[in-house]
Amino acid sequence: MYIDCLKIAIVNIRNRKLRTGLTVIGIIIGIATIFALISIGNGLDNGVQEQFGKIGANRLYVSASGSGLTSLQTGLTNDDVKTLESMAEFKWVTAYLQEQAIVEYDKESHYVAVWGITSEDLEKRWEDMDINLEQGRYFTENEKYSAILGIKASKDMFDREIRINENIIINEKRFKVVGIFEEIGNPEDDSMIQIPIDVAQEIFNKEDQITIVELVLKEGIDVEEAAKKTERFLKRKRGDDLFEIITPDQIMQQFSTVMSIVNIILISIAGISIVVGGIGIMNSTFTSVLERTKEIGIMKAIGAQNKHILFLFLIEASIVGLIGGVIGITIGFSIGKLAQVAAESAEFNLLRIKLDPLLTLFSLFFAVGIGALAGYLPAKEATKKQVVVALRGK
Prior knowledge:
Elements: H1 2-15, H2 17-55, E1 59-64, E2 76-77, H3 78-85, E3 90-105, E4 108-117, H4 122-127, E5 133-136, E6 146-149, H5 151-155, E7 167-170, E8 173-181, H6 187-190, E9 193-196, H7 197-203, E10 209-210, E11 212-217, H8 223-238, E12 243-246, H9 248-291, H10 293-301, H11 306-345, H12 357-383, H13 387-391
Parallel strand pairs: 4-9, 6-8
Antiparallel strand pairs: 1-11, 1-12, 2-10, 3-4, 3-7, 3-11, 5-8, 6-9, 7-8
């Protein structure tokens, strides 16, 4: 009997193509929206995780208290760097000074961020993060007015591309471009301009000041233990606690919190579309019950039980949900891929859209489930009709 109900459901769907099509569209919109939005959220998370994996989880960052990773506040000094270099836990201690500056090239100028960086063994420091040069070389600790540019700073910042061995002006000082980085993947890093930190302190009148210090741990050193030891040691040497130690876990927790909030908002928006689709299925099934009252009466008259009629309407709604789910997933994934292409064309390469099996299964079950749920009430109503009343078409 259940096989017969399934065959009848398929025939009914075929015979009501317009109504079925309109109902399917509601499910498609909902599933495509939720699949695309969650895929984009997951894609951003994948891109950041991939980038974070390149940098490594064996790093600590020291910044002025309350300044965070990107603040322009200062509070650290060269003495703090020497203190950190004296600790046995670290493979590299890299100091940075970030300042906004007027950068001139070919009679054109822009106000951009310039990073001063420790010059000693600079090539090894960057290779350790899997970041390499596309052209040129790294400046050495003996060089003074040399600069390395991100690929976006080289090609897009000015009307004419900046090439190796050409000069740029930073705060009225002439710098020779000795290297250009490979594409890193995000606009901020690809737009960076790096110069030796001692020169940065000089031209920005920030002698003895540091924005942030990056610490790369030696192999086998526990990150959390190293963070606690660094805090105690630096606090004792400085005589204050006006600094903070930032661990990889803290960075990822902050990012995860933000992404969770974003995903909740995106899912809530997509949920509205799902509700609309569900209402469409319910409306369609209610109408179908009214139109097929005599059919229900005939089925009951020839021995169909309430559970069979309930199954018939539920399977119709579930099939509609399944069709909408499959098409919605396909469209949603395509939208995600188009978003990735658009992001890459805008030189934002941290979006990695992948077909997530769990999300795909969830979307399919969700589509079928919302279809079955929306079809349950009218199906239940259909089973309540008496045979005589149903045969009269009322």
